[in-house]
Description:
By secondary structure, this protein is mainly beta. The protein has 1 helix and 7 strands. It has a 6-stranded antiparallel beta barrel. β4 and β5 form a beta hairpin. The longest helix is centred in the middle third of the chain and has 11 residues. The two termini are 28 Å apart.
Amino acid sequence: MADTRHVGNDYSLYVNPTSEPALPDEITNYTLVGLEIGHEISTSAAEIAASDKTSGAWSNTFTGEQNYTLTVTGHLAKDGNAGVDILETANLATTSSGKLVYWLSTTNATGDDQRRGSARVTEFAITENNGEMATFTCTLSGVGAYTKEDVDA
């Protein structure tokens, strides 16, 4: 049975290549890349060994460095390629700062979950087949933590 938590059906990916917007949860501060076919966000944390003689040699760990990766596949925006061009340009950049984008994944429907953050474009692909919708796939490697929040009115 499907989960009814999300009221919107269509997640879209938005990006901003210059700086974190003053209002980072508003789609008007980003450029639309396209409608998401699907996305996966995965997080991980390194473990630092922390056992001592009082633990009876049983291991214990602390959380070390944390990171996330966002992989998105989607259809290109029908009204132009500006968003996908931002991703491709960032992917082709040869500096760390040139690869940085600010992203927002949202349905823009009040009450839905949305996620946003800053990341470096580490993988990018575009597929353009004759007679079919063009698609993109990108991998964004997080810079800092991402934010998960509800879309507000």
